[in-house]
Design a protein that fits this description.
about 65% helix, flat, 4 helices, 2 domains, about 0% strand, mainly alpha, about 130 residues
């Protein structure tokens, strides 16, 4: 039941599915195949509920606490640096004119990058630690 939204989210994240385009049959089957076998591998190897909580916590909480805020800042203030945040068409025109006090600074830029890098390192270590122990 949770497979359809996961597949749809992955297809949209990879750019296979947009408002005007559907994924090809090969893309659809490839995403389905990879998600199925990743889920199967986790289901077959993680036999204790505590392990599942460790893996999900190590993966999801670090994304929400560190990676997402850094990427959100970079996506708002530097969309040209992140290809998946590039605005097209009507989205390129701002809805509200920017105020002068919201200009990005080098300090916020550096902090956002540090958050993302630190979050990725913690995510990898937490997930690895949960799977190894």
């Amino acid at each position: 039941m949770g497979f359809y939204p996961a597949r749809s989210a992955v297809q949209k994240s990879l750019g296979f599915e947009t408002a005007t385009r559907s994924p090809t049959t090969l893309q659809h089957y490839a995403v389905t195949f990879v998600l199925f076998f990743v889920t199967l591998a986790f289901g077959a190897t993680l036999t204790r509920l505590g392990k599942v909580y460790q893996v999900v916590g190590g993966f999801a909480s670090t994304y929400l606490a560190y990676i997402f805020p850094g990427l959100a800042y970079l996506g708002v203030y530097h969309p040209q640096r992140l290809a998946f945040f590039t605005r097209r068409g009507a989205e390129a025109e701002p809805f509200v004119r920017a105020a002068r006090d919201t200009e990005p600074t080098w300090w916020f830029d550096t902090t956002a990058v540090i958050l993302v890098v630190f979050g990725v390192v913690v995510m990898v270590l937490a997930t690895y630690g949960a799977l190894v122990s």
